[in-house]
Input
Amino acid sequence: MQEMMTETEKKELEKERFELALERIAQIPNEKRCAEKYQNYFDKMAEFVLLMKKTWDFVADGSLYMASLGELKKHNREMYVDILPENYDESYANPTYAAECFGKEMGQLLSFVYAELRSMIAAAYEQSLTDMVIRAELLLEIYQAFLCVAEEAQVVPEYEELRQIAYWYVSDYYETESYERVAGLLLPQKDFATKIILESDLSDIRYLYYYGEYVTENEIRTAKHMTELSVETTRLMADTYTEGYRIGFEVGNKDISIKKTVNIRYCLGFEIMIKQAIENFDRIGLKPTVYRAGTNIFQGRSVNKNGFFGANPNKQFDYDHKEDQALFLDSALVQRKLECMQNAYEQLKKEAGVMGGPAVLEIFGETPFVPQSKEAACKLSDKQQKLSVEYASKAGALQNKYIKGEERSFTIIAFPVPDIGVQYEEIFDEIIRINTLDYKLYQSIQQSIIDTLDQGDYVLVKGMGKNHTNLKIQLHTLKNPETETNFENCVADVNIPVGEVFTSPQLDGTEGVLHVTRVFLNELEYKDISIRFENGMITDYTCANFETEEENKKYIKDNVLFHHDTLPIGEFAIGTNTTAYVVARKYGIEDKMPILIAEKTGPHFAVGDTCYSHAEEVKVYNPDGKEIIARDNEVSLLRKEDMGKAYFNCHTDITIPYDELGELSVVTKGNEVIPIIIEGRFVLEGCEELNKAFE
Output
């Protein structure tokens, strides 16, 4: 039997494969063996791969760290120039252009190949030879298929032959890629980004170019602004972030002492704060894991980035390729993906057991993105949508098996970037103030609201003006009101800043229409979004983004329902942060506020899982000692029979702003109506302080 190769032998073989692939790719532009339009495509692909080899060497020999700022800017733009908005109309990465050149099916596939090759940027900077090799070989295999038919005097190979190449590329390499992704989440020694944060001179903005992410004035100005803040201010930002994480374990009745790692997610430019946060976490006993936001078919592409990331060179590119898996997704591939994920977690189960969960720094202020719905972009079929939902459900359950929901926590904080406007620095200071408001004051006010809500049978929410919301939210029955409550008193822990009380409503009896005239969800705009509920489940939905009802429904199903046929109301909350609302209005940035802050500026409703997803059995208490009993609904309870029916692995908050809110009242079992908010102002006794911000 042939002996197993050593790691050194594997690396030597990979190096040899890479050199052979590069040698062959370098010959492509000189061969001219394909029909002209296809030759142009392959010439462009070869040019890009050779640029990636140049980038690899630029990093490997240390030139990256010796280069001037001007040289770094030039190289950074060179890598991304082809997909920038001004060039995208004639880029093969644009499925519409590719379809115009090659027809729809062939165009979709060749555009996917180019999108996949573009993930070599990350591989070159992280010096991942495997990721470089497999993508270079994918290009060569596609090119060879064209050469074979050219020799037989055919024009192009059969589409199915090329689709099979793509299929087996994904299937063959899922095991390696899945392990790397899980390892990036769990292992501190996967420290590519951590080294940049801890070892770079953060006063020298050249460090921003060490990641390989696209860098704009947004990231540069952010990094410069961070150096201009006092040490006390950056420490306050970091302390709020890390203390929120620690308190999240405390209020969730979870033991942080058994955790050894924390997954840090952030945007380039905030490294000074993140470096302080790493030191804070170290004192708690937690080491950081930091992985790059998805750039390829294995990790998934999304406009909403998850990991560390720089500027998005073109959000339309990510939107166009978010469903590229439609080219090959089938039940066998779903099973393969789940098996690979299972194997990865099994190999790293010890490390998974000590992962505490994510600590997320979000950004906001960028120009709102309104996507184009393109006919040529890949779209999941109905069958594939069901497979996608099945995979998400099983993958979520699998992750929860190893990183137990009842033991992990999280925190999220958000800061603006310079794109928010000329008053950036002033707005930044306001957000620091909002993120550090007196949580004790809010805790007391919110307890007054909770005490009133706990008298209720259901809550009525009605819009005013152009808002047509008319909802009845059914509350759980408290068996012992002296020791039980329906609502959590949420201050500055997992969701910074302060300012909400929330519950998981009873689905039976929850009904009506939720409507908002304009809202941004996961960086996508929705105009006049309207969702109808019966017994807590979505029965109909629409918006006014597109000309046809079919396009509007698909937009919501893809990006709010995430291909599910329906979702429950997983959360009902009342935001109390009127200060944040007024700041948004003062600077005209309502459309740029992240959901993290926006959800605190009015009542909001989450569709999908509850806030207690996978941790329903953990008893949670408010500061007054009462247990929050509304941790389940009729759907999440199905976990006791079938986990696949209980969770949807999504949770999207939709907020009604105060100026669209006509009434929010609680109705008791005796039919007494107790108003809490009328025409956008708090009228409940004990909430007077909240209205001062409006004045």
Summary: The CA atoms of residues 548 and 554 lie 10 Å apart. The mean pLDDT is 93.
